[in-house]
Structures are given as structure tokens and as C-alpha cells.
């Protein structure tokens, strides 16, 4: 069994017939607004009546709780190195969804071997069964944790800015996921565009390159505008969709949430746990 097969060899789990939608919000470059987007998407999904979990998957530098003004008593560190069950780390938020906080400044979390990562994913999958939607907020870049969390999602939403460096890093992430995890479908979201055409031009630039060099499909999820309410809400530690629901950024996110719920990963019906089929890279385990 090769690496990609191992990634998809998740043991069958009894979910009582229920399906769980997993959406990964990820980026090749830091500072593109990925965490802010993930927090607000979780808020919007909860508002739609869906039992939602936001999993801070930035294993060593998690900070989703900061955008929510929350101070967790337990984090992923307690799951990975303590005796805490995953469910004991779940934290309710004032916005209707549950947060699984990441750890910050814990370097040893990034150095877990493949066997340990496999055990982590098994525990996470079991705990996530009770949710209808799970949003991953991954770390930026192409680290092993990033690749594994993205491979463990139905939808991979790659966030980028219109600038060339952010687009190049977004392409690099899709390239590595395609070559090392055999991912073939991505969704691109352009943040902080000056106007709709700038976002569309950025998408066309990436799609031209992926069409030539990668055997993948990239769906354009639209662009989010520059909006002064974003900084205001971040400073207040309140999701912008709660602080300023009629702002241009919030309205754009609302349309994005509808698109994600209307579409499915890979163009098939919403997957159940039995056919997610994910394992972290177990070579050497």
C-alpha cells in the first residue's frame, strides 16, 4: 500500500448513518486572513442550524481562540501529551459553534512521528462524529500536519491574496498536495481584492498554471474585498459576521458559506465517515 492509499485507509466507523462534512481552510502563505475566514465560516454554519466544530489545526501556533476572545483551559497539547479525551477539550463559543483550541508555542507538537500522528487522527475522527460540519484552520505552508489535515477533508479551500507571492505559495501547496497526497480538487478563495476583477484575474493566473503543469481542478469560490470592518472586528475579538453582518466582507463570506454547502467535495454526495478514507502518512510507522 503506497502513501496515498494509506492516507485514505480510514477504518469504517459507525456513524448511525449520519454524514459529517469536513472543510479545510488552508493557505500556502501566512498572513492571508485564513484564520479569520475559518472563524467566520464556523459562525455562519452554526447560524444555519448546523452542529459545527472549528478545529484549530495549526498544531504548534494555534490562535483561533484569540480572534474569539476566549482563553481555553485545555488545548490540543492536553490531547496529544496528556490523558485528556478530545471531547474534554471542546469549548463552546458565544456564536453557536464548538472550538477545539490549538496550542501555541509548543514545538514538540510539530515533531510527532508518523505513528503518533496516526493515533491523533483516529482520536479526532472518533470525537468529530457528533458534528454535521467540521472546519479545519490549518497552519500555512506545506508541513506534514498541513498535508495530512488537508487530505482528511472533503473540501480544500485555499486562501490567497492577489499578490504574486501569495499566488505562488498557493500554487505550491496545491502542487505538493497533488503530488504527495494525490489530491485532485481544490477551491480557491482570493482575500483582500480591490475589486471583483482582480480576484478573477488571480484565479485565472493560477488556473492557467495548474492546467499546464498539474492534473487537478480548481474551482473559483470568489473574492473577499478590502473592508475596514475586518480590522475593527479583529481588534474587538468578535467575528465580523456578528459585529458587522452587512459589511462587504461579511456578505461575501455569507455567499461563500452558501456555495460550500451547496457543493460537495469531488462532485459526489456528501460523504459519510465510512468513505472519507483518510490516514496520515504512515511510512516508517
In brief:
This protein has 285 residues and is an alpha/beta fold.
Observed structural traits:
285 residues; 8 strands; disordered N terminus; disordered C terminus; 8-stranded mixed beta sheet; single chain; alpha/beta
Describe this structure in words.
- The protein is an alpha/beta fold.
- It is 42% helix and 16% strand.
- It is built from twelve helices and eight strands.
- It has an eight-stranded mixed beta sheet, sandwiched between helices.
- Helix 9 links the parallel strand 7 (185-193) and strand 8 (217-225).
- Helix 2 crosses helix 12 (248-262), helix 7 crosses helix 8 (164-181) and helix 8 (164-181) runs parallel beside helix 9.
- The longest helix has 18 residues, at 164-181.
- The two termini are 13 Å apart.
- Mean pLDDT is 85; it is low at 1-18 and 265-285.
